[in-house]
Design brief:
Number of helices: 12
Number of domains: 2
Radius of gyration: 20 Å
CATH topology of the largest domain: Fumarylacetoacetate hydrolase, domain 2
CATH superfamily of the largest domain: Fumarylacetoacetase-like, C-terminal domain
Structural class: alpha+beta
CATH class of the largest domain: Alpha Beta
Distance between the termini: 35 Å
């Protein structure tokens, strides 16, 4: 059973699979009940995020109860005969920012220097970490101080493309997943079979309207293939965008008087990985250690230089970069099939997924055309 652990004081929006209409419905949480608020006015999460006050709309929207949260959360993802939770975004683009924390910057440099070989990582980590790690803490990306650190590291022969996007003026922004391809809570998350060195990346994601207004937040797992990206940054698409490689959920908490971007800036995230072999890994990430403000990351993603007519959800990056050995000394952490990954934050709940190969996860078949046809058949558009 999946425990979402959602707080009582939030305005939440999400999506479930509705067997009776063979398609997705927009839902909210009220007093422990999941309420279907799908309407012609707002047939999608995208439509609600485009409103002037999404939280006020959801709070007052008429709807019908489809069951209690615990029961729906217990239904297995992918079972088309039973209602179950989907990723809470629909028509929004799914973008992600990388290398936004000092510790993860150092690990990306190590991956690059090791050329994706975990056997080489420990020795490189000792050298690179000693020289780079302390110098990056509390540096504001793009500042004069960051430029001075860059000059010093170039002189040491340690400058890296990852440090360029980590503390330079321009953030790394990439496409994490295709529209409607993200999986939700309780679903399987996929690793490309070619990868032998990989890890979860627990992150907060922002829901952003087409006008660039940040309207809410959720949790995400930016599944990462360290060996693939380590061989070449040009393989980022292969490392990041695969079947079931993006998990978001459990729901989007909309901004209101009780929850704002300032709460996101101070959010704490916990990660637990539990293996079928009894292995347990715990990690923690603090948003107050991010090197770029979330609003700046949004501004670098969306603006006059790039439009998103249906809005977007944006992964903000992670502090978490596991280095403890799982099996072989010196080779660090990597996933095993069957790992259960739980990402949690007190104001956003829990996101839990089970690790499989991307070739063994259910294929993504319900795309934009299917969504539009389904809404049309329901007379919602």
């Amino acid at each position: 059973m999946t425990d979402f652990n959602l707080p009582d004081d939030g305005v939440f929006i999400g999506r479930i699979w509705s067997p009776e209409v063979q398609g997705p419905s927009v839902v909210t949480l009220r007093a422990g009940k999941i309420v279907d608020i799908t309407s012609k006015q707002a047939p999608s999460v995208r439509d609600i995020c485009e409103m002037d006050d999404p939280a006020a709309y959801v709070r007052e929207a008429r709807g019908k109860s489809v069951g209690d949260l615990a029961s729906l959360a217990a239904n297995p993802a992918g079972d088309l005969a039973r209602p179950h939770f989907l990723a809470p975004c629909d028509l929004q683009a799914v973008k992600a920012c990388g290398v936004t924390f000092a510790s993860s910057m150092v690990e990306r440099v190590i991956e690059e220097k090791a050329a994706g070989d975990p056997k080489k990582a420990q020795a490189i980590r000792a050298r690179v970490g000693d020289i780079i790690g302390g110098s990056l803490r509390n540096i504001k990306a793009g500042s004069d101080e960051a430029a001075q650190v860059k000059a010093a590291l170039i002189a040491e022969g340690l400058w890296s493309q990852y440090l360029e996007v980590g503390i330079g003026p321009d953030a790394e922004v990439f496409t994490k997943a295709q529209v409607l391809s993200s999986v939700g809570p309780g679903a399987e998350v996929g690793l490309h079979p070619v990868s032998k060195w990989n890890n979860p990346e627990p992150e907060i994601i922002l829901a952003v309207s087409s006008k660039g207004r940040i309207v809410g937040a959720s949790l995400g797992n930016d599944v990462n293939l360290r060996d693939v990206e380590g061989r070449s940054a040009l393989l980022l698409g292969k490392a990041k965008d695969n079947n079931a490689s993006c998990a978001i959920g459990p729901m989007i908490r909309l901004f209101d008087d009780a929850f704002t971007l300032d709460d996101v800036r101070e959010a704490e995230l916990d990660l637990t990985v539990t293996g079928e072999d009894g292995y347990v890994l715990k990690g923690h990430s603090s948003m107050n250690q991010i090197s770029r403000d979330p609003a700046d990351l949004v501004a670098q993603t969306l603006g006059r230089h790039h439009q998103y007519p249906d809005g977007l959800v944006l992964f903000l990056g992670t502090l978490f970069a596991p280095t403890q050995d799982r099996d072989t000394p010196g080779e660090g952490f990597t996933h095993k099939i069957g790992d259960v990954v739980t990402i949690s934050s007190p104001r956003l709940g829990n996101l839990t997924n089970t690790v499989r190969l991307s070739t063994e996860c259910p294929e993504w078949t319900f795309g934009v055309a299917s969504f539009m046809r389904n809404l049309a058949a329901r007379n919602l558009i």
